[in-house]
Design brief:
The radius of gyration is 11 Å and the shape is globular. It has three helices and no strands. Helices cover about 55% and strands about 0% of the residues. With about 55 residues, the chain is an all-alpha fold. The N and C termini lie far apart (about 30 Å).
Amino acid sequence: MALRLAELIAGRVPAEAFQLAIEYDPRPPFDSGSYAKASDAAKAYLAHRREQPRRP
């Protein structure tokens, strides 16, 4: 349910990237729980987010 909420708030690609980041794959709403299955867009989004400095 949290991934669906993330999709509604941020969009599909960010939600897929979130799923990839936590490697959630038992019964996923998207098929991006591993790097082997994730879309290029989800991988790029996650890489970009990991490069950004964290806010205090």
